[in-house]
Structures are given as structure tokens and as C-alpha cells.
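We include the pair:
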Amino acid sequence: MRIKSFIFSLFLVLGTVVPGFAGIPERPDPPRLVNDFAGIFTPAQVAELESMLVSFDDSTSNQITVVTVNDLEGYAPAEYAVKIGLSWGVGNKDFDNGIVILVVPKTESARGQISIQVGYGLEGAIPDAYTRRIIEQDFIPHFRNDDYYGGVKAGCGTLMKLASGEISEVRDRSSDSEELASVMAKILIFMFILYIIIRVIGRHSGDDDFTGGGGNRGRHVHVGPIITWGGGHGGFGGGFGGGGGFGGFGGGSFGGGGASGSW
């Protein structure tokens, strides 16, 4: 895995020695973590995302940058995102703990695209399979409804939980849905069998209803609620407080860990 990452990085570096990082935006000055070159966020949304990511950087030293562009300049999404990570130096050079989220909005003539690229130091906490699930489960469902802000906020929330160790995995929600459907089916079958048993017992005792009717008025059989469902799952809790402005990128490195998707 390390050899693969090294070869990938070497390929990127050699491929850019002569032409440089052609078509890649220059490192922002003043430095920012949210760089909306495609103009898909409102100023308020940019400010909120920036505050969230700066606070995360301050508390963990992990850097997540969000970059939106309208044109990949001929690059593949993953290559473009890695070039941003390398040329901007996203992450700390001692830990290589940067994450680049690249979004290309959908147009009438082209599919939207997204790529998440993870620095060397976070590849253990955020493996490729998890980035793919985050793209499919957090980003793209919002993006399909033109809710770029909601998708980025949800995806960043999951990435921050993984990077900080708050969670250690990203479950496949489609598998969870299938498992829930199976459990529900078993519960319904059990309830149906229980109902039949109660009816049979009631008839044998001369009590054809469940309230002690007929000759057994003194006996009441009460079947109360069997199942109650709790509330839904909360989101990425608490949010992030104020904190100071972003101090700049720290020279992190990337080796091709991550995933890309489209919608």
C-alpha cells in the first residue's frame, strides 16, 4: 500500500515538473479552507463551513479543505484533488493529515463530480472504502437535490468524526436497511403467531374477545403495546465554536488514498 502510494505521488510529481500545476488554482492568499471557485455556496454558507473547519483544525490539527471548480482542465477528479493537496500543502507536514474535498457542480451538459483525497497520515483512519461510502451516503443524496451546502456539511461531519477517532467505521446503510427489513419481518411473523395463539385460547375458554366477554366477564386479557420505536439518530452533534481565523496550510503530502464519484 505504501509502495502504491509512493508510485502514485512520484507519477504526479514527474508529470508536473515541466508544465507545473497547470490549471490548478494557486494557494489562496489569505489562506482559506473553503474555496468556492464555482460559486455554489452563499456567503453565509461559506462562513459557516469555514468556521467549522477552522475550529476542527485548531482542535485536532487535521485540515480539511473544500474546493469547488467548474472545470477540471482535463484532469481526472482524483488527480486534480491530489494536485491541490500537494501544491497547497494541505495538512501538517509532520503528520500528513490533510483532506481535500473537490466538488464540480452538475450542469445541463455534464454530470457533477466529487473526489475526496486523504493524506498519508489519515489513510488508516479513513480508508478508501469509507470515503466511497461517505460520497454515496452523505454527499451525493444532497447534491442530487442541488443542496451542495447540506452535502458538504454532512460529509465533512462524518470525515471529522473518523479523523478525530470519534467513530472508527462508516457502515453501509443499504445493508443496515436490509437488516432492519429482515428484523421487522420476523417481528410481524411473531406478532401474527401470537395473535393466533391468543384467539385460540380465548375460544377454548369461551372468551371470544379480549375483554372477558361472554361467561368470563371477570377476566380481562389486555394486550398492551409490544413495540415502541425511539427517536431518530442525531447528526454531527454540537457544531463548532468560534475560534480564530485559519493560519494556513502546513505542507502535508498525499499519495492517492480516497475515492471519487459522480451524479
